[in-house]
Design a protein that fits this description.
The structure holds 2 protein chains of 2 kinds. Chain A is of the alpha/beta class. Chain A has 2 domains: about 5-15 and about 30-225, P-loop containing nucleotide triphosphate hydrolases (Rossmann fold, 3-Layer(aba) Sandwich), CATH 3.40.50; about 250-320 and about 325-365, no CATH class. Chain A is about 25% helix and about 20% strand. Chain A has an 8-stranded mixed β-sheet with strand order 6-7-8-3-9-10-12-11, with helices on both faces. Chain A has a 4-stranded antiparallel β-sheet with strand order 2-1-4-5. The longest helix of chain A has 18 residues, at about 190-205. Chain B is of the alpha/beta class. Chain B is built from 14 helices and 12 strands. Chain B has helices at about 5-10, 70-75, 105-110, 120-125, 130-145, 150-160, 165-170, 180-190, 210-225, 240-245, 260-265, 270-280, 320-325, 340-345; strands spanning about 25-40, 40-55, 60, 85-95, 95-100, 115-120, 200, 230-235, 245-250, 255-260, 330, 335. Chain B starts with a helix and ends with a helix. The chains are: A alpha/beta, B alpha/beta. Chains A and B meet through helix 6, helix 7 and helix 9 of A and helix 8, helix 9, helix 10, helix 11 and helix 12 of B. Chain A: Keywords: ATP-binding, Nucleotide-binding, Transport.
Chain lengths: ~375, ~350
């Protein structure tokens, strides 16, 4: 097994909610609440989850764009949150980020040359001043842009091209880890494939490790070696890509996978669909015990009180990390015989959600 | 007011004008053109679009950003800002009557009772300063002349119909108090309030998470079956389309480049662009391989390439494609493609 380049242990990030006349703290938004994982050298770790599950906050914590409430990140043997000043700046060279929205993450007043070359201004010893223009042009060439466009401004490029600029900036300092926060979500399908291909090519050529944060499950599956599924600030399931997509054991993963519309009309009525009740509860007031129990069809009393740990649980073919008291493999992608289902699996294939119980209505409600 | 009175008033649809579809044909769009006159030049957003919509049918309009799919919807609804938009040519007939030449007042009365629309972004489509119940009830007050309390009662019923939990208690809540999925349900409630014959859903689930998307699509399908509405589903998501559509029209640079039955199209695309789109979705058996991306970029609508608009990105392109714009022609029973080499694409 390859060695770990980045190890996150028990990362927690709470954002205070202030209220009242004195603006005292009245609560916390528990954006990330105890997440641990390792990123191996040269691998791609996909992080999936719905909006509000804390996946972007996790990315920002790994970049130290946010200070954690508690927990640690060890990068290449160095405790990241213990570093200060120059040492931290040096560390940042090795971890870079590509943001989701190529329209707001590039400064409209700067030329592409300035944007991609800015890392060299901050870390002047990487490339000598004279060689910078050439270095930027090489980078543009590497990400498939015309090096002659170095003096153009972001608005002169399309969405896909801008994302390439963002990637060029991300790899300028030759980092070891690139955190990609929804890098293709804003792009059209045909352009999305181009950018995914580019990222895979760069990984092969530069030996990068990726943390690939996205909500598009099929893209994550394509690019990732391992996948972590997040729900309300916690990791619900973590394993090899095959484990997660082929033998998911956490009910949330199963529901998520079953909800993805498959681009094949012949599977229309054959595919099992688990329609979840209601919305994601507010992270300011997450459910007790297992955070998924309010929407889970398997939930029992135990789930309301005991927090299930993310530990190795059998998945039929082996075992992988799952945080469910009643972890059980279930095939999602292929059709399953209804008669094989246990009695508890009532919610399957249900189209009619009329009997909805009133459940928490998402963050907007609080 | 008694129920029978309500019914009587409803059946007489406030304008007195009645529309009856012939043989189930609700909507015919013929040679529609839309241009935007901007200071930088003329953007040709739609360049000759034709399609029909029947009762109970789901037509998906599939395309990437800038392909003209939303503009088509807005043209049908009559909510384009004119100017800058101009419709130089074309007809949109609803039950045989051309909406584009109809007097404004008559057309206004079709919006809601006859044709209605669900937008992508429910938060910016709902009015933030009025309760949602009031906004739904407005449909009944304006179009049916109901009084406030009756209209509100109907709004509660509709909210229950779109499965909003505790509808009675929440009828007075404001849009920001609902989650994204619930807001989209309210949009749907407004759209179906007056029992329209045609419902246009413009990217109804794009802003939503997958688990919520599944709920909303199931609801839309259910309502469509129940009311036998003609549904125009506008989306860029090939997965969503595969799950709900009967027919698909694929748009590129303001034209329909392929139209087919959903099963035929996914089994065997008849246009290189459709083929490229389908191939660019990551599939299981392609793990670790390059995705078959379509090279290049969608064209600038101010400078659409000569001939076939797709030719600079097309693997099949020959000289004829750069000179001659292919028409949308039948290439097999029930399916059309606008490509000079449709046969090769279809069978090669």
């Amino acid at each position: 097994m390859a060695e770990a380049i980045l190890t996150a242990t028990d990362l927690v990030k709470y954002y205070p909610i202030k209220g009242g006349v004195l603006r005292r703290k009245v609560g916390d938004v528990k954006a990330v609440d105890g997440v641990s994982f390792e990123l191996l050298k040269g691998e791609t770790l996909g992080i999936v989850g719905e909006s509000g599950c804390g996946k972007s906050t996790l990315g920002r914590l790994l970049m130290r764009l946010e200070e954690p409430t508690s927990g640690s990140v060890v990068f290449d043997g160095v405790d990241m949150y213990a570093q200060k000043g120059r040492a931290m700046r040096k560390l940042r060279r090795d971890i870079q980020i590509v943001f989701q929205d190529p329209y707001t993450s590039l400064n409209p007043r700067k030329t592409v040359g300035d944007i991609v070359g800015e890392p060299f201004d901050i870390h002047p010893d990487v490339v000598p001043r004279k060689g910078r223009r050439k270095a930027v042009q090489d980078l543009l060439d590497l990400v498939g842009l015309n090096p002659e466009h170095i003096n153009r401004y972001p608005h002169q490029f399309s969405g896909g091209q801008r994302q390439r600029i963002g990637i060029a900036r991300g790899i300028a300092l030759n980092p070891k880890v690139l955190i990609c926060d929804e890098p293709v979500s804003a792009l059209d399908v045909s352009v999305q494939a181009q950018v995914v291909n580019l990222m895979e090519k760069l990984q092969d050529e530069l030996g990068l490790s990726y943390i690939f944060i996205a909500h598009d499950l099929s893209v994550v599956r394509h690019i990732s070696d391992r996948v972590g599924v997040m729900y309300l600030g916690k990791m619900a399931e973590l394993g090899e890509e095959d484990d997660i997509y082929g033998r998911p054991t956490h009910p949330y993963t199963q529901a998520l996978l079953s909800a993805v519309p498959v681009p094949d009309p012949t599977l229309r009525d054959k595919k099992e669909q688990i329609v979840l009740k209601g919305d994601v509860p507010s992270p300011a007031n997450p459910p007790s015990g297992c955070r998924f129990h309010t929407r889970c069809w398997k939930a029992q009393d135990k789930c309301k009180t005991d927090i299930p740990l993310l530990e190795l649980r059998p998945d039929g073919a082996g075992e992988h990390l799952s945080a469910c008291h009643f972890a059980q493999p279930r095939e999602i992608i292929e059709t399953i015989d209804v008669s094989d289902l246990a009695d508890g699996d009532l919610d399957t294939g249900r189209r009619d959600t009329a009997s909805l119980e009133p459940v928490g209505d998402g963050p907007a409600d609080s | 007011m008694t129920t029978s009175e309500t019914m009587a008033r409803e059946s007489a649809k406030s304008s007195g004008q009645t529309y009856k579809p012939q043989d189930g044909l609700l909507l015919e769009v013929e040679d529609l053109h839309v241009e935007f006159h901007t200071p930088d030049g003329i953007a040709r957003a739609i360049n000759g679009v034709n399609f029909d919509l029947f009762e109970g049918q789901t037509l998906a309009i599939l395309g990437e950003s800038g392909s003209g799919k939303s503009v088509t919807a807005q043209a049908i609804m009559g909510i384009l800002d004119m100017p800058p938009a101009v419709i130089p040519k074309g007809q949109i007939r609803y039950c045989g009557q051309d909406l584009l030449t109809m007097p404004d007042e008559q057309r206004r009365r079709t919006r809601g009772p006859e044709i209605s629309m669900v937008f992508q972004d429910a938060l910016s489509s709902l009015n933030p300063v009025f309760p949602v119940g009031w906004q739904i009830a407005e449909m009944f007050r304006v179009h049916r002349g109901m009084n406030k309390s009756d209209a509100l009662e109907r709004a509660v019923k509709l909210m229950q119909r779109v499965q909003i939990p505790a509808a009675k208690e929440r009828v007075g809540a404001y849009p920001h108090q609902f989650s994204g999925g619930m807001r989209q349900r309210i949009m749907i409630a407004m759209a179906i309030a007056l029992d329209p014959a045609v419902l246009i859903a413009d990217e109804p689930t794009t802003a939503l998470d997958v688990t919520v998307q599944a709920q909303i699509m199931a609801l839309l399908q259910e309502l469509q079956e129940e009311r036998q509405m003609g549904l125009i589903l506008i989306t860029h998501d090939l997965g969503v389309v595969a799950n709900v559509a009967d027919k698909i029209a694929v748009m590129y640079a303001g034209r329909i480049v392929e139209r087919a039955d959903v099963y035929d199209l996914y089994r065997q695309p008849g246009h290189p662009y459709t083929k490229g789109l389908l191939e660019s979705i990551p599939r299981l058996d392609q793990k670790g391989q390059q995705l078959a991306a379509i090279g290049g970029l969608p064209p600038n609508l101010m400078r659409i390439p000569e001939g076939c608009a797709f030719n600079p990105r097309c693997k099949f392109a020959q000289d004829v494609c750069r000179e001659d714009r292919p028409a949308l022609l039948e290439v097999a029973p029930g399916r059309e493609s606008a490509c000079h080499f449709a046969e090769e694409v279809l069978h090669g």
